[in-house]
Amino acid sequence: MDLQIHPSWKQELEKEFDKEYFKDLIKFVKEEYTSSICYPKGNQIFNAFDHCPFEEVKVVILGQDPYHGVGQANGLCFSVNDGVTMPPSLINIFKEIETDLGIPFPQTGNLEHWAAQGVLLLNATLTVRAHQAGSHQKKGWETFTDSVISTLSRKRKNIIFLLWGGYAKKKGAKIDTTKHHILTSGHPSPLSANRGYWFGNTHFSQTNELLRSMGKKEIKW
Questions:
Q1: What is the per-residue pLDDT for 4?
Q2: So what's the pLDDT on residue 194?
Q3: Is 82 part of the annotated catalytic residue set?
Q4: Marked catalytic residue, from 2, 18, 65, 146
Q5: Entry pTM
Q6: Cα separation, 117 vs 189, whole angstroms
Q7: What pLDDT was estimated at residue 44?
Q8: CA dihedral 185, 130, 115, 53 (to 10 degrees)
């Protein structure tokens, strides 16, 4: 199958695309998109990779599922399209950035400008059926995104992984901590944030401090 994904990633993940589980996954996804409304749009499923080539990844943020509301998901975790109301988790992310770095609350929740600077905004599951959270879990996407993380861990060094919440932390088992940096905290969802597990984690200033110490360009959050 000819996958529309950035050439740099295609090269790194080629063997994965040939595996049986991935062929079954793509078959399932095609059937779902034909029979039901699913998100994100078909041409945005691999957006995280298309906006952030393999060799340019400096930071990885891990999400779980794409947003399942109308017009929200755009293939980048936590991000929404321009003009779309920001979900609560994204609002809490921007609140933390405001407190941490003094950056004013933005007008849009579209995080493409983060991706363009080397932030891989990766969901563990890349598709979802409309209004049915988790509907495409355990179909193969998690195996694929585990491979993405393992490949980055193995072939690159000094990437900063931001793992928010229990689910993302479990994915962290694939990361070689002798070569990479991991920052963990609670999830930015209201449930976790309101219990004191999110606000004050200063992950955005810490990330920029680490990038500075490595002689890399800071992220303009």
A1: 80
A2: 87
A3: no
A4: 65
A5: 0.96
A6: 25
A7: 96
A8: 110
